[in-house]
Design a protein that fits this description.
The complex is a heterodimer of chains A (80) and B (203). Chain A is mostly helical and 80 residues long. Chain A has 3 helices and no strands. In chain B, 26% of the residues lie in helices and 13% in strands. The chains are: A mainly alpha (80), B alpha+beta (203). At the A-B interface, α2 of A face β6 and α6 of B.
């Protein structure tokens, strides 16, 4: 024989759970943050050749070299 | 760890819209959405200045602060991205953004407004790097390919600089010192804080 107080308690707990709000931030809703960029895409044909996927230092150096050579006119032509 | 930033050198920008075209082509951005655009101040007046504007990937992003569903996140490289599976297209971010970066396609989920689309610094989204799903939702992930954003790499006058904050600030500083003028970097203080101005810059 289930006591009425216990039954009432279980029902109240169930009602409270139903009112709960599920987490909505990226980490908790299953949409984990993307992997760091230095992990690479795994698509060799589109990847810049002078760095190794997974190596953060070589990735950073590749971007620095690319930025300096591509964007810094003074470094590129050696002018002042 | 590199902290990715944009600078637009108004002394060099010639309003060619090459950056806009490069972005739309690289990311196959739909009609009605311009992740990047060129704004001209005092258009037609001698001495007019043009700047290329997109998401600046702010250090303390207002879009992230106002989003009711918390769809924004910051990558380890300092790039502000969002999850389109979480976005509800409410438009709060577009009101909060000082650069007008959030765009809303005319067609798609949620009727007329659709899910928000913005510059990703060519860093894709939360999907697997280089995957078809990532490309379809967010465009190319050049950063994970070891490349800088297409807009900056295509800029014909190198007005638009992108990359690690230290590097782009060094390049800009060298230009300002060499030419002796044009130290204004519009948007830099708004996006990255007034304490983070490149050396030699006024604003």
């Amino acid at each position: 024989m289930i006591r009425p107080q216990l039954l009432l308690g279980v029902l109240a707990l169930g009602a409270l759970v139903a009112c709960g709000e599920r987490p909505q931030d990226l980490a908790e809703n299953g949409n984990a943050r993307s992997a760091p960029a230095y992990q690479g895409t795994g698509v060799a044909s589109f990847t810049a050749p002078s760095w190794k996927a997974g190596d953060e230092k070589s990735w950073a150096q590749e971007l620095r070299t690319r930025g300096e050579r591509g964007q810094n006119d003074y470094a590129r032509i050696g002018a002042r | 760890m590199a902290r990715m930033k944009f600078i637009c050198d108004a002394e060099r920008c010639i309003e060619c819209n090459g950056c806009v075209t490069a972005c739309k082509n690289e990311n196959e951005v739909p009609w009605g959405v311009n992740r990047r655009r060129v704004v001209t101040l005092n258009d037609g007046v001698p001495g007019e200045k043009s700047i290329s504007v997109a998401c600046m990937h702010c250090s303390d992003a207002p879009c992230m602060a106002v989003c009711p569903v918390n769809c924004f996140y910051r990558t380890d490289e300092g790039v502000v991205l969002h999850d389109k599976d979480v976005c509800i297209g409410c438009g709060y971010c577009s009101y909060a953004c000082p650069f007008g970066a959030p765009q809303f396609p005319a067609k798609g989920q949620f009727g007329a407004r659709g899910k928000m689309d913005k510059c990703t610094f060519c860093a894709g989204g939360p999907e697997k790097h280089g995957s078809q799903a990532e490309f379809e939702k967010y465009g190319r992930n050049r950063l994970a390919e070891g490349k800088l954003p297409a807009c900056a790499e295509m800029c014909s006058t190198k007005a638009l600089l992108a990359g690690d904050g230290d590097m782009v600030a060094d390049i800009f500083r060298q230009r300002v010192i060499t030419r002796g003028k044009g130290a204004e970097v519009w948007g830099w203080g708004t996006a990255y804080g007034t304490n983070a101005k490149p050396e030699g810059a006024k604003s």
